[in-house]
């Protein structure tokens, strides 16, 4: 009996230690699990919200927005010159031309009269795009003073300078006419 009690106690302690060592997932949506935070240099970001991008009945990707602190006001997020990260976990494969079309539509709908710098940066973004198969992750990470790093599955594609470009990219999600829709916008803003 004593051995059983000691063995049970040890198993309980080990299970607790294992739980502490395991990374916690903050959220799951449409079968995609995302971490509760991200680190940009020395800066810790928190998961602000998670949304599902659908087109008709097809689930395209799960988008996650990471910020220094939770914020549901799009204008405040865009006004801050702070680190942020957008990730898209693809549930459906898309071509590079589809990605480019989506970026350009989002720019046109949410950034009136973009500067020539922003237009040129979106062309660079389109050039950096590749076909993104189901299961891949596209990440766009803005670091003040450096720009927006674009990665596919952790592989660096390009870094695009300028906060104005980062804001235009983020506006495609949280601008007045977000390409993924109002429900997606509310979800990544944590308002849903």
Q: Which fold does the CATH topology refer to?
A: Chalcone isomerase
Sequence of secondary-structure elements: HEEEEEHEHHEEEHH
Strand order of the largest sheet: 3-4-5-6-7-8-9
The profile of the biggest β sheet is: 7 strands, antiparallel
Count all strands and give the number: 9
Mean pLDDT: 89
Low-confidence stretches: 4-24
**Portion in helices:** 25-40%
The gyration radius over C-alpha positions equals 19 Å
Q: Provide the CATH top-level class.
A: Alpha Beta
Total count of helical runs of at least 4 residues: 6
Give the CA-CA distance, first to last residue: 52 Å
Structural class: alpha+beta
Strand content: 25-35%
CATH architecture: 3-Layer(bba) Sandwich
* The number of domains: 1
Shape: globular
Keywords for this entry:
single chain, seven-stranded antiparallel β-sheet, 9 strands, globular, alpha+beta, 192 residues, Chalcone isomerase
Structural notes for this entry:
- The structure is a single chain.
- This protein is of the alpha+beta class.
- It has a single domain, classed as Chalcone isomerase (3-Layer(bba) Sandwich), CATH 3.50.70.10.
- 38% of the residues lie in helices and 32% in strands.
- The strands form two sheets. Strands 3-4-5-6-7-8-9 form a seven-stranded antiparallel sheet. The protein has a two-stranded antiparallel sheet with strand order 1-2.
- Strand 8 (147-152) and strand 9 form a beta hairpin.
- Helix 3 (96-110) packs antiparallel against helix 4 and helix 3 crosses helix 5 (163-174).
- Mean pLDDT is 89; it is low at 4-24.
């Amino acid at each position: 009996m004593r051995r059983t009690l000691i063995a049970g106690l040890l198993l309980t302690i080990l299970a607790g230690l294992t739980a502490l060592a395991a990374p916690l997932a903050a959220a799951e949506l449409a079968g995609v699990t995302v971490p509760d935070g991200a680190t940009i240099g020395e800066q810790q970001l928190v998961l602000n919200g998670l949304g599902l991008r659908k087109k008709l009945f097809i689930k395209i990707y799960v988008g996650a927005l990471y910020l220094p602190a939770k914020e549901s006001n799009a204008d405040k997020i865009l006004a801050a010159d702070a680190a942020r990260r957008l990730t898209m976990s693809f549930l459906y494969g898309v071509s590079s031309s589809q990605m480019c079309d989506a970026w350009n539509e989002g720019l046109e709908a949410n950034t009136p009269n973009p500067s020539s710098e922003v237009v040129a940066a979106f062309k660079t973004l389109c050039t950096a795009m590749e076909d993104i198969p189901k299961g891949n992750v596209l990440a766009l990470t803005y670091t003040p003073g450096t720009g927006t790093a674009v990665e596919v599955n952790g592989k660096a594609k390009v870094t695009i300078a300028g906060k104005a470009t980062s804001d235009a990219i983020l506006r495609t999600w949280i601008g007045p006419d977000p390409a993924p829709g109002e429900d997606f916008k509310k979800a990544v803003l944590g308002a849903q």
